[in-house]
């Protein structure tokens, strides 16, 4: 029997976890919702770096690690490869394809927060859809800007920032209504890929609103890489 350790925290990972029997383990960092309706074991919280994960793999007699974490969760992806090498088990990964700009899109690609704020200088009403990072900068908002920050965690805003604590998926109708009501003149996004949060790009396209896109971090090579959940599940059916 191949005992799987699935690293998750994404909708795709949850789809895989739903197919796993009770001998397998689904691991979450503990930032979002923890599902309570899975057949497999759910564990929550960090392992204590790659060494802690390697110890876990050995102690739990894990035979395959699957990294289905978010494409911007670079630390856990690096740890998965280091730990599985140390424990001598294979590591697979779901590496979801990023979005591509379409005709009429105006994407400005940035690599870090400094480049991001420089790219935003000409705008007044950004919508941030990057997670919680902007919350650390609410005291530095330029006088000509009003920020809307959409993220999972409730957080206090201020005179120049509103926090929308909400989780996807987001519909096109919902995004259209939000863009119309708030008159955003730029959207700040990670290139997450997938359908759950893509509607903001279509709403931006319709309104001619530019997108400041944070580049994906580099991720390590793995033994097998999949773009689609269905392909990974198929390989798993053969392997398990
Ligand atoms: P990260 O920077 O790559 O990881 C930070 C630390 O969190 C890791 O070193 C690990 O702690 C722990 N960790 C992360 N994912 C874990 C998992 N699935 N199981 C157990 N421990 C985990 O990750 P992040 O960007 O903070 O993301 C945290 C979680 O949120 C991930 O599960 C990710 O899939 C999900 N998520 C992230 C984003 C994003 O934009 N970054 C978006 C949507 C969902 P130890 O070193 O102690 O093991």
Automatic annotation (TrEMBL):
Enzyme class name: oxidoreductase
Superkingdom as given in the UniProt entry: Bacteria
Name of one Pfam family that matches: CbiJ
The keyword Oxidoreductase is assigned to this record: yes
Single annotated GO MF: precorrin-6A reductase activity
Keywords: Cobalamin biosynthesis, Oxidoreductase
Enzyme nomenclature, EC number: 1.3.1.106, 1.3.1.54
GO process terms (BP): cobalamin biosynthetic process
Full protein name: Precorrin-6A reductase
């Amino acid at each position: 029997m191949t005992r799987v350790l699935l690293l998750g925290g994404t909708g795709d990972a949850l789809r895989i976890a739903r197919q796993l029997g009770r001998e397998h383990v689904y691991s979450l960092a503990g930032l979002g919702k923890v599902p309570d309706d899975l057949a497999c074991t759910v564990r929550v919280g960090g392992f204590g770096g790659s060494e802690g994960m390697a110890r876990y793999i050995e102690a739990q007699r894990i035979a395959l690690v699957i990294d289905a974490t978010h494409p911007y969760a670079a630390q856990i992806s690096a740890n998965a490869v280091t730990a599985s090498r140390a424990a001598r088990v294979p590591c697979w990964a779901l590496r979801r394809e990023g979005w591509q700009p379409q005709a009429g899109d105006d994407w400005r690609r940035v690599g870090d927060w400094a480049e991001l704020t420089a790219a935003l200088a000409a705008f007044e009403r950004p919508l941030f859809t990057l997670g919680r990072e902007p919350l650390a900068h609410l005291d530095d908002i330029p006088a000509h800007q009003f920020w809307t920050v959409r993220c999972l965690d409730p957080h206090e805003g201020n005179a120049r920032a509103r926090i929308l604590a909400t989780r996807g998926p987001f519909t096109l109708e919902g995004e259209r209504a939000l863009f119309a009501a708030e008159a955003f003149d730029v959207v700040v996004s990670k290139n997450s890929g997938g359908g759950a949060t893509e509607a903001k790009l279509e709403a931006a396209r319709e309104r001619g609103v530019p997108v400041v896109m944070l580049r994906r971090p580099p991720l390590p090579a793995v033994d097998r890489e999949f773009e689609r959940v269905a392909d990974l599940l198929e390989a798993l059916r053969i392997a398990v």
